[in-house]
Every structure is written in C-alpha cells, then in structure tokens.
Amino acid sequence: MDPTQSNEAAVPLYKQLADTLRQQIESGELNDQEPLAPERELALHYKVSRDTVRKAIRLLDEEGMIYSDHGRGTFITSAPLRDMAKAIGSFTLDTLRRGGVPGQKVLVFEKVTAGMAIASVLNIKPDTVLHHVKRVRLIDGEPIGIQDSWLCLPKGQGFSREQLERKGSLYRLLVEDLQIQPSVALESIGSILACEQDVALLNLDKGAPLLLCERVTMSERRVPIEYCEMRYGPSYRYKNKVTQWGGN
Amino acid sequence: MDPTQSNEAAVPLYKQLADTLRQQIESGELNDQEPLAPERELALHYKVSRDTVRKAIRLLDEEGMIYSDHGRGTFITSAPLRDMAKAIGSFTLDTLRRGGVPGQKVLVFEKVTAGMAIASVLNIKPDTVLHHVKRVRLIDGEPIGIQDSWLCLPKGQGFSREQLERKGSLYRLLVEDLQIQPSVALESIGSILACEQDVALLNLDKGAPLLLCERVTMSERRVPIEYCEMRYGPSYRYKNKVTQWGGN
DNA sequence: TAGTGGTCTAGACCACCCC
DNA sequence: GGGTGGTCTAGACCACTAG
C-alpha cells in the first residue's frame, strides 16, 4: 500500500484500498448489511490517513457496493442490489450475470462522411470522415438488438473489422487498443415499431415494439467520440441507476 | 461563507461555494468551455481551503456543469450538454425545458396490501399496507404516460389525494411534506405493446409501442420506498446519463 | 455520553500539459 | 519550467445516532 515505492503502475492508495475492500465484500468475508469497520479503524489498520479511507469508501459508494449513514456507520449493500448495480451500462456484464453468453455479428464496417444530423450531435464539421459499424448483439447466439455506431476518432487512429471481431466489444477496443476512455454518455430513450429490417434481423413478429436508445458518448475531455443508435426487442431489459433528483 | 457563525441552515461551505459558482455559470458570467479560475485562486478569493474548493468542483462535475482536465484546468460544460444533464430524472424539469407545461391526473388513490411480487422488490412482508397511486402524466394537457406507484412509507406517515394534487409532484411531496429523500433508484427499461387501457388513456392507435420503465426507489438508508411502473407513448423520450463503464 | 460519519484546514508532493 | 489538477497527511471540530 505504497505508491511512492515500486511506482510500477502507480495506482493511487485509495484505489488500492477500494480494490481490497471490494474483494473482501465480493468474496463474502463480510456479510450483507453488516457494518464495515469505522473509518478511523480502517485508516489505522491499512496505515493510511482517514481521508484516503474516505476516498475509497466514496468510490465503492458510487459503485453501489456500500453506503454510509451519518452517525451510524458504513454498510454493505445487499447482494441482489449489488448485482443489479454491476449490470448497469454493460451489455456484456449484464448478459453474463444472467447466465448468457454475449456475442455480436458485424453487418456493416465502413468509413463514411458525416451527414448534417450526426455532425451536429458529435459537434464536428459535416463531411468529417467517421467509422460506421452496424452490429447485431447476441445472447446465446440469439439476436437481441441492433447497434449502429458512428465513431469520430482522433486523426491517424483507426481499427480494422478483424480487430473489432476479435475483441468482441467496441468499448474494450476503444480502451485497450486506442487508449480512449469514455467518461460520460447522454442517452435519449423511447419506443418505436420494428421496421422490416428489424423484424428480419431480430427474428421478431411484424408490429413488435422496440426499445430505441440513442447515445452520445464523450471522452474525458468531453469531446463527443461516438453516436450510437440501439434497437432492442421486447425480451431485452435495459438497466439503469438514477442518482440525480431534480424534482420528478 | 461561514457556517459556524449564523448556524442558521448550516449549509456546508463547499455547497455554498458550489451554489455561487453554479449561479455564475448559469447567469452567463462565464462562457462555455472557458476555464474556471484555478483551484488555488478560488480558495484564496473565497477564503476557504483548496480542499473545500475541490469538493465544490466535484459536486458541479457530478451535476454535469463543469469538468476537470489534469494539468489543463477546469472547464464549463457547453450549454446544450448542461441542459440535457439537467433534464435527467425529472419529468417536470424536462418538460419545462422543452417549453411544455407538465401536469398530472390522478386515476387511482388507495391503500392496498402488498402482493408477493411487489413485496419482493420492496423487500417487505406480503400484506404490508401500501399507498397505491395511478396517474396519467400530461404535457400541455396531452396525456404522455401512465405511472403506477406503490409506496411503502414509515409507520404513521401518509398523505391525502388532495395533498398530491396540490403538489403536482410525488417527488416533491415526499421531500417537502414527508421528509423522505430519495437517494438511488434502480430501473429496468424495455418495450411493450400498448394494451387496450393504455390506448384509451394515452389516446394512441391500436398496436402502438410503449416504453416500459420499472423503478425501485430507495431512501438514503437504502430502504426501498417506492416501486413504480411507467408507460410512455412513442412521443416521449426518456433522458439518461451514463457514468459507469463495465465493458459494453 | 460514546462512537460514528461529515466538514474544514494548511501544507506537501506528484502527474500532467503546454510553452 | 511554470502552472494546473490529483493525491496524501495529521489534526481539529461538528452533526447525527444510539444505548
């Protein structure tokens, strides 16, 4: 627990501590709704300052692993709730959690120039060259949804169809191969009737209702990097966590 | 900027500072994508520690108002993105932002005993008494969605139909009248065909696709307080912000 | 009243970006 | 090299909860 020595990796102390605690929780060393050790005690035990402990706790809180009650203690979220929180934002993890095998079939892989609509949401000039990828998402080989992605990558960066098919996940390709870390995405979600192509690709009945999700993904500098349209059949459920309360 | 004196309200310093900065941004004193003053400078100017400044900045970051870049500075999110972030999680705010007038029509207001399904998601014993409220949501008087809520309130607490109709918002009723602050909600979102009742209430065509959103809302102590089923017609778009990346 | 989390401070050093 | 945000510390006091 010392990032100055062995500055290999150089993971911050509070992240190391969070990893340690996360592992303890997931391995069942600590039971649901049981209190964690008090912050001061953890600080003493791991030989870090209380502030560092608090940062680790905050991280785990944001992940939905634990929560703090003023004056009472810090408690472990119940296992069902933890599982649900983990499934959020990840087709792959959610599928695995339900015991399914995630997959994809790449239908279209091309470079295109941005039209007005996409240029507008990505905040770029029309006719900028984009990567366009159209995929069918599979669970246990069954088609579940269609994803149309338009990516605006930094000049000189790109990837091949084979690279994407090997990774199996566009997100992992961005992070691992292109060093691009998505930080925030804004989504607009609605319903729509399946068109003929949707019916054919997803193996649905005519007139089936679809979940339509449009997403703009931004890098850490809040530069839009991807616009994505997703269509899911009625059997898929999108998971979400709400933490902002404006006054519904 | 001193909570020890005039301990009226006793709003923490970093929240006061966040309010100040938020107001400056919204009033246009600072322009989009312009850098904020450096943290050390803000600390000096407002006579607080740098750590307090950082807490305020973190708060505004979570709200989507600003973002920080290591080594470069802290910048103001562009206005369109700020607006979109503000609309999240709030039917009322989103509607107002689009220039509409939000409304509601209460269809059902009753006390019921929990069935097995609802008892399970709310983590309570079956036959516990719940408030059941069914409403149609309106924009400019037009029906947009149907919401079915089951509320599990602390013993002795309750509210009347008139109270709800006066507030116009179940959320505000919880916070202002019952001192219950929602902290996290987990949602499962999918699509479904409108049934006969949906068609009639929302004034849709037969076979219209609906957005179905099921939500469990929890209090600050992670006690489930509400289960809600929402059905929206194709004209409504649900807004969402994604900040967790597990590996899509 | 004792114990917990929440806020605040002052100062230090590191990591990153850009000139 | 100079300026920025990111991490870390040690200690103080406040606010809330529970026995």
Topology readout:
The structure is a homodimer of 248-residue chains.
Chain A: H1 13-26, H2 39-46, H3 50-62, E1 66-69, E2 73-76, H4 79-86, H5 91-97, E3 102-113, H6 116-122, E4 129-139, E5 142-151, H7 161-167, H8 170-178, E6 182-193, H9 196-202, E7 209-219, E8 224-232, E9 238-242
The structure holds a DNA duplex (19 and 19 nucleotides).
Question: Quick recap of the structure?
Answer:
The structure is a homodimer of 248-residue chains. Chain A has 248 residues and is of the alpha+beta class. Chain A is built from 9 helices and 9 strands.
Q: Any overview of this molecule?
A:
2 copies of one chain form a homodimer. With 248 residues, the first copy, chain A, is α+β, with helices and mostly antiparallel strands. The first copy, chain A, has 2 domains: 13-85, Winged helix-like DNA-binding domain superfamily/Winged helix DNA-binding domain (Arc Repressor Mutant, subunit A, Orthogonal Bundle), CATH 1.10.10; 91-232, Chorismate lyase (3-Layer(aba) Sandwich), CATH 3.40.1410. In chain A, 32% of the residues lie in helices and 31% in strands. Chain A is built from 9 helices and 9 strands. A 6-stranded antiparallel β-sheet of chain A has the order 3-4-5-8-7-6. In chain A, strands 1-2 form a two-stranded antiparallel sheet. In chain A, strand 4 (129-139) and strand 5 (142-151) form a beta hairpin. In chain A, helix 1 packs across helix 3. The longest helix of chain A has 14 residues, at 13-26. The first copy, chain A, starts with 12 loop residues before the first helix and ends in a 6-residue tail after the last strand. In chain A, 33% of the residues are buried. Residues 2-8 of chain A have low confidence and may be disordered. Chains A and B meet through helix 4, helix 5, helix 8, strand 6 and strand 7 of A and helix 4, helix 5, helix 8, strand 6 and strand 7 of B. Strand 6 (182-193) of chain A pairs antiparallel with strand 9 of chain B. The structure holds a DNA duplex (19 and 19 nucleotides).
